[in-house]
Amino acid sequence: MSNSLESLAIGLDVGGTAIKAGLVNRRGHVVSTQTIATEANGGVDHVIERMIRLIRALTNEAAAAGSRIEAVGVGMPGTLSRKKGMVIAPPNLPGWRNIPIVKWLSEGTGHRVVLDNDANNAALGEFICGAGRGVQNMIMLTLGTGVGGGMIFGGRLWRGAYENAGEIGHTIIVVGGRRCGCGQLGCLEAYASATATVTRAMERISNGEDTCLRAELNNGRLLTTEMIVSAARNGDALARDVWEETCRYLAVACLNLQHTASLERIVLAGGMSAAGEALRRPVLDAIDQIGSKMLGDPPDIRLAELGNDAGFIGSALSVFEPA
Ligand SMILES: [Zn+2]
User: Domains of the chain, with CATH numbers?
Assistant: First the structure.
């Protein structure tokens, strides 16, 4: 039961295919959630209209429960300006260029609206009520199609001077290495994302190496990291090799972050973290092998706890953060 006159926030996590939203209190307790299709092909105005309707529905729900809305937090992918309230170039929303989303949504709903990067919001969500509880310094790596990052230093999100801190996926781990989608060579994302892991496996399969994964491909299925992890577990040499390699690249990234920022915790999130201990354990083992003893305490690596909800919970909680 929600307290009467409790102040709630509405959080939105806007992706290319779905918008997840929820009513959340300032401790991160989720009162209710809604998920709608983004319908990105309908264009910018169509999606904004859908967001406004969603915010209104959640506002009515809060009012019916005797609560009021503090503000609306929105998490979006890609380049954006939190200060200007503008979405600049989201990778999976065609036609979105320099959209003053904060202005449009606050005019459409009457609420204060706060915008931030989706990776930052997800990190904030895990920090306040997930795997980051109880620490002050943590970095979250979101492992999916790409590699996203969110950084909490001294108990606050660190966005940097130009608001684009935390692009850990584009830190270079192999000089002159594989080409990344961002144009650089050798980015972490080009080696340790789910996409990159599948690519490395496919290259070796195309080269004729023996693996049980070939049977899956012959059945017309698309290769996934879940299939690679499960094949590795069953002793498939190629799958084991590819997965250990991914974990080693992640270990290098974690070590670099630890040397840079002296963290209490590193949280592994995103679709690939569903592998659980099959991800965490080999990353820890590789850190143990590769890392310098000068590091002192190794980073405390944990798996994310909020799953796909971290984004909208963090978006909601971001409205309670000091500006
Ligand atoms: Zn890159």
Answer: 7-125+309-320 (3.30.420.40), 134-304 (3.30.420.40)
